[in-house]
Amino acid sequence: MAAEGRHPPTLSDAELVTLAVLSALLGFTSERRWPRHARTELSAMFSHLPGQPGYNRRLRNACGLVRHVIRILAADTSLWSDDVWVADSTPIKCGRSRGTTARRSALAGWAEYDYCASHSRYFWGLRLHLLCTLGGLPVLHALSGAEADEREVLLGMRQAAPDVLTAHPRQTIIADRHHYGRVFEAELTERELHLLCPARQSEPERPGAALFKPLRQTIESIKQTRKSQLDLERHGGRIHAGVIIRVLTRILALTSVVRHNDKTGQPLKRSLALDT
């Protein structure tokens, strides 16, 4: 029994974020299995571990906190000052059948049906849009429906975080050939952002095209990190808040590991396999 006049122990914000990172690093995708595992195996590390409903409810309400921690950790790395970013998107599958999921899923109206070229298949769900450094550090991110125009999302990320762009003047953004258009490129130029992307079939070779070949392996490696190490295919979210916080915790886990590897001088910054 707690001593009279004392409040029962609670999980601090720092402990909540730590648990979220551990769940992603240890590959847990079940909202039921992770709290049960934490109470069994990690109780000595934390002052208090709530049950599943309490932990999940609090974590879903902590999106702002997790975003804040992502930014703090990212800015505390040497990669934050890189002058080249890679823009890309990753499918977040939320269902297998468009007809069934559109009628029954709580994500209907946000999730959409689209084609994933890298997997050569259609999927029903969302897309995670990321701006990363060449070292794999997430700088900006956004979740959208699968059919969203990547150019509009990129401009939206820029508008949502003007302080980041102010801190990175004359940035170069490497993107695929879907990022095109005079109005789009003019907006980037107006904000002192230089777009580097391959030419479309009807276009002459663009300036900087020679840089794509030596950087291709690096860019593909960054994409592979998101698809495999972040385990986004198995996020397990069923409602808006659930999907959002699961994606955010994975971005936080990646950012945490990049910072750890950067501080400890590891050659590969984005590997989720921590060298302790």
Description:
The protein is of the alpha/beta class and 276 residues long. The chain folds into two domains: 13-60, no CATH class; 82-236, Ribonuclease H-like superfamily/Ribonuclease H (Nucleotidyltransferase, domain 5). It is 43% helix and 17% strand. It is built from ten helices and six strands, in the order H-H-H-H-E-H-E-E-E-H-H-E-H-E-H-H. It has helices spanning 13-25, 33-41, 52-60, 63-75, 98-104, 150-160, 162-167, 182-190, 212-229, 240-263, and strands spanning 84-95, 112-116, 121-133, 138-145, 171-174, 193-196. Strands 1, 2, 3, 4, 5 and 6 form a six-stranded mixed sheet that branches. A hairpin with a 4-residue loop joins strand 3 (121-133) and strand 4 (138-145). Helix 1 (13-25) packs across helix 10 and helix 4 runs parallel beside helix 10 (240-263). The protein is globular, with a radius of gyration of 20 Å. The chain starts with 12 loop residues before the first helix and ends in a 13-residue tail after the last helix.
Keywords:
43% helix, 276 residues, alpha/beta, Nucleotidyltransferase, domain 5
Give the arrangement of secondary structure elements:
Blueprint: H1 13-25, H2 33-41, H3 52-60, H4 63-75, E1 84-95, H5 98-104, E2 112-116, E3 121-133, E4 138-145, H6 150-160, H7 162-167, E5 171-174, H8 182-190, E6 193-196, H9 212-229, H10 240-263
Parallel strand pairs: 1-5, 5-6
Antiparallel strand pairs: 1-3, 2-3, 3-4
Summarize the structure.
By secondary structure, the protein is of the alpha/beta class. It is built from ten helices and six strands.
